[in-house]
Specification:
The complex is a heterodimer.
Chain A lengths: L5 E2 L10 H11 L10 H21 L6 E4 L2 H19 L5 E5 L4 H13 L3 E5 L9 H10 L4 E5 L13 H9 L5 E4 L11 H4 L3 E5 L10 E5 L25 H16 L1 H22 L4 E2 L10 E5 L5 H10 L2 E2 L15 H5 L4 H5 L1 E5 L6 H23 L1
Chain B lengths: L1 E5 L4 H12 L3 E8 L14 H17 L3 E5 L1 H17 L6 H20 L4 E3 L4 E5 L5 E5 L16 H4 L2 E2 L7 H10 L21 H9 L8 E5 L5 E5 L26 E6 L4 E5 L5 E12 L6 E2 L4 E4 L6 E9 L19 E11 L6 E6 L2 E12 L2 H7 L1
Parallel strand pairs in B: 1-2, 1-4, 2-3, 4-7, 8-11
Antiparallel strand pairs in B: 5-6, 8-9, 10-11, 12-16, 12-18, 13-15, 14-15, 14-17, 15-16, 17-18
Helix pairs in contact in B: 1-2, 1-6, 3-4
Classes of the chains: A alpha/beta, B alpha/beta.
């Protein structure tokens, strides 16, 4: 097959936006360490600070709130560990971390580590069948002993099933007790409106490659007055909580991507929602047993997470891949071994149901022709995957 | 043909996949994830060797230029191979898990799924040759490289399985395969051969079994007795540590009366007794086999001059006469041994006696280089002639 693949895995990585490529490549030819004092250094610093200001304008924070990192996972680790350590140092009773059962591994695994190595008491709140955080459970957990809560971390939008989380309610609850809130907003930037100050969260993780920016660069937006302990020690380049020579080309690319995607967010979301709804409707027409997971309305506009009873997700993925259609069974796994999704399990699916799903995620390059290709392929693919499962 | 190449991460399966692709098959590489890991929300907890092997297989697929996936067969593998291995040892038998894996996993679960997904055959790096016989059936023959020949562990394959198998390395010697891997730029060209049992990481079968069997361990100690006098010669810490024919590790303080080394002659798991005696006691020339599997037409008598039986992996060939006894639920008793078995059986008369043959091992029957079939050894005995000769 020589045609370009039908790429429907934007939630894993979305292609770079032309403005981001331009911003990044324009800086690649320039020399300068942003911490050097000469003209080249000052120029590199200017690129970084302009990017910080651009991001601040786009996301409703102050430039000083933006801490550049190497991506979403580092941002999550810095927020969780850094805030936990600092809050516990202020008051040793603060050992509880409240989060949800549907977080990305970049949140769950640091939490497990904090529990095992740092004595944190991690409580993962349940979700309902559509993957909304159960606010009653969170309220109960907070009010049981508010003084012992170091922080609350709740993702803005779930990366697998796309459900938007009740961030405003979480923030209101936390504010009653002065507990800081972190949110992993990696999937949300550019897809739904995100305003840091208006949201009231204290820390927010984002990454470049999900918004049309480069890989390997991201940011933690964190209120300047919130104490955060450093995770990576060294030259103290970023507010002394993150060290390492900054990458001006990548940072310029990140800022350009965020600016562009936030500017176009509304129009982009409407377009994706229409394509996505079309995809879901037509797939269900062909495969009547197929069903959408997550909240049908309050979800990421490009996310179509579908269950195909009687099939294995990885068979479906392989058969679609062979036809040039690229999607995912959940979040990508490093070892390439399909595991039943912890998100679907938390939503009450049994292990069987947790293995029969596919995530199609649309993005800025998606077209109606992509949807046509899926609709054309899905019938025979599901039929074949069912035969394989029945063996 | 559409071919699934099972890629372990080793040099053989990589070259096999490359050859299958080179002759024009539409090849897809798959790595089988066989080790089980806890189904918690943490991923990537598999042993490092497995991830390394998976990565090696992936890189080989990249270089060959074929798609690559990991298939998780850990549940099937655990049920069909690991549990069986433990049950067999607990019953005092000596199983060969590689045969079991070929019978139940590689050429059953994988092949079935592959066929259902639209593939025509499974290719592996086993050293064996397939040819079409005069009767139109597929024949399996020993590999050209007798040192690497793996027809023994494939002796469980039926005609239907053979008809959907490819063994591209059967006509080549191992050194040539390594050279070819290097020429093809496969980075695994120098990777050491695997041996031992893949799920026993350190090769310590006895230690592994003691740890895993737990309550199923038939005993955790017992007597070591002289097979002729019945005198107790020492103690052991569990029969699962022993294999018939074993000489080392008996730790008997007293030397034998004749000053000759003693060997394990019999294992009785219920009483926990290990019988030892002189080497002559290991010699047998009658074998009863159960659960025969035939590569082609079911024979009745095999007594040609070229008929041989191989009793362990890389073991020698013994000239033999084989009689096939069809299933007879009314009879129920075998002519040798007390093992009651209603299914079809084979009775093997060895013309060259064998030593140290344990129930549970496979007897693979050859006519010349052609594999006729196999059976699981249920009992062994000595003919009157051999008894006289040994006395």
């Amino acid at each position: 097959m020589n045609t370009a693949p039908v790429y429907l895995d934007h939630a894993a990585t979305t292609p770079m936006l032309p403005v981001a490529i331009e911003a990044l490549t324009a800086r690649l030819v320039e020399v300068g360490n942003a911490n050097s004092l000469h003209a080249s250094g000052r120029n590199a610093r200017r690129v970084v600070e302009e990017a910080r200001e651009t991001i601040a304008r786009a996301l409703g924070c102050r430039p000083g709130d933006v801490v550049f990192t190497a991506g979403g996972t580092e941002s999550d680790n810095l927020a969780l560990k850094g805030i936990y350590w600092a809050r516990r140092a202020e008051d040793p009773r603060r050992v509880r971390i409240l989060s949800t059962a549907i977080e990305h591994h970049a949140v769950l695994d640091p939490l497990v580590w904090l529990g095992e190595a740092e004595g944190a008491q991690v409580e993962l709140m349940p979700v309902d069948q559509q993957a909304h955080l159960r606010l009653d459970a969170l309220r109960e957990a907070v009010e049981r002993d508010p003084a012992s809560v170091a922080l609350i971390s709740v993702m803005w939008a779930n990366n697998e099933v796309g459900t938007l989380q009740p961030i405003a309610e979480v923030v209101a609850l936390a504010a009653e007790h002065g507990i800081p809130v972190h949110t992993d907003a990696v999937q949300a930037i550019g897809a739904v409106p995100v305003d840091f100050a208006a949201s009231g969260v204290d820390a927010l993780s984002l990454t470049g490659h999900k918004v049309g920016g480069p890989y390997g660069v991201g940011a933690l937006i964190v209120r300047r007055d919130l104490q955060v302990s450093a995770l990576v020690h060294g030259g103290g380049q970023e507010r002394d909580i993150r060290s390492g020579t900054l990458d001006p080309p990548a940072i310029a690319g990140l800022a350009a991507a965020i600016e562009e995607s936030v500017k176009n967010q509304d129009e982009h979301a409407s377009r994706l929602r229409a394509l996505r709804d079309d995809l879901v409707r037509r797939v269900v027409e062909v495969v009547p047993e197929a069903h959408l997971h997550g909240d049908p309305e309050r979800r990421l506009p490009g996310n179509a997470h579908l269950g195909f009873p009687g099939c294995e997700g990885d068979s479906l993925l392989m058969l679609l891949d062979a036809r040039g259609i690229e999607c995912s069974t959940g979040s990508a796994c490093s070892a390439g071994v399909p595991q039943p999704s912890h998100v679907l399990l938390a939503m009450g699916c049994d292990e069987e149901a947790a293995r029969h799903s596919l995530r199609f995620s649309l993005g800025h390059t998606s077209t109606a022709a992509d949807i046509d290709a899926v609709v054309e392929a899905i019938g025979p693919v599901v039929e074949r995957a069912r035969t394989a499962k029945a063996r | 043909m559409k071919v699934l190449a099972a890629m372990s991460g080793g040099v053989d399966s990589a070259v096999a996949a490359a050859r299958a692709a080179e002759v024009g098959h539409d090849v897809t590489g798959i790595h089988l994830a066989l080790s089980r890991n806890p189904k918690s929300y943490r991923t990537g907890a598999r042993g490092c060797c497995t991830i390394e092997d998976s990565n090696d297989a992936r890189r080989a697929a990249d270089i060959i230029g074929i798609p690559f996936y990991v298939w998780d067969l850990s549940d099937r593998f655990h049920e069909d191979v690991v549990e069986d291995f433990m049950d067999e040892y607990a019953a005092g038998r000596t199983p060969n898990p590689c045969l079991r894996c070929n019978e139940k996993i590689k050429f059953a679960a994988v092949l079935d799924r592959g066929l259902a997904l639209g593939f025509d055959a499974v290719a592996t790096g086993h050293y064996a040759q397939l040819r079409t016989g005069a009767d139109g059936l597929i024949e399996m023959h020993r590999a050209v490289d007798m040192g690497k020949d793996q027809s023994y562990v494939l002796g469980v394959l039926t005609q239907d399985q053979l008809a959907h198998s490819l063994f591209p390395l059967g006509d080549t010697t191992k050194p040539v395969v390594r050279l070819e891997a290097a020429e093809r730029g496969l980075l695994v060209a120098d990777k050491p051969d695997s041996h031992d049992i893949c799920f026993v990481a350190d090769g310590d079968n006895a230690g592994w079994l003691k740890e895993k069997l737990g309550d199923r361990n038939p005993n955790t100690g017992g007597d070591i007795v002289d097979s002729t006098t019945g005198d107790v010669l020492g103690q052991h810490d569990g029969t699962v540590g022993f294999t018939i024919g074993q000489r080392r590790g008996l730790r008997l303080g007293v030397p034998a009366a004749d000053g000759k080394p003693r060997f394990v002659l019999d294992i009785e798991p219920v009483s926990g007794t290990v019988s030892v005696g002189p080497r002559e006691g290991l010699r047998i020339d009658r074998i009863a086999g159960i659960k025969p599997r035939w590569c082609g037409t079911v024979p009745s008598v095999l007594d040609g001059p070229e008929v041989t039986v191989q009793l362990r992996a890389h073991g020698r060939e013994h000239r033999a006469n084989v009689r096939v006894v069809p299933a007879d639920p009314s009879s129920g008793s075998a002519s040798i041994g007390a093992d009651r078995h209603d299914g079809p059986r084979v009775e093997i008369e060895l013309l060259d006696p064998a030593e140290g043959i344990a129930p549970g091992q496979a007897a693979v029957i050859y006519d010349g280089t052609r594999v006729v079939g196999s059976a699981t050894i249920s009992a062994t005995a000595r003919s009157a002639e051999l008894e006289q000769a040994s006395a």
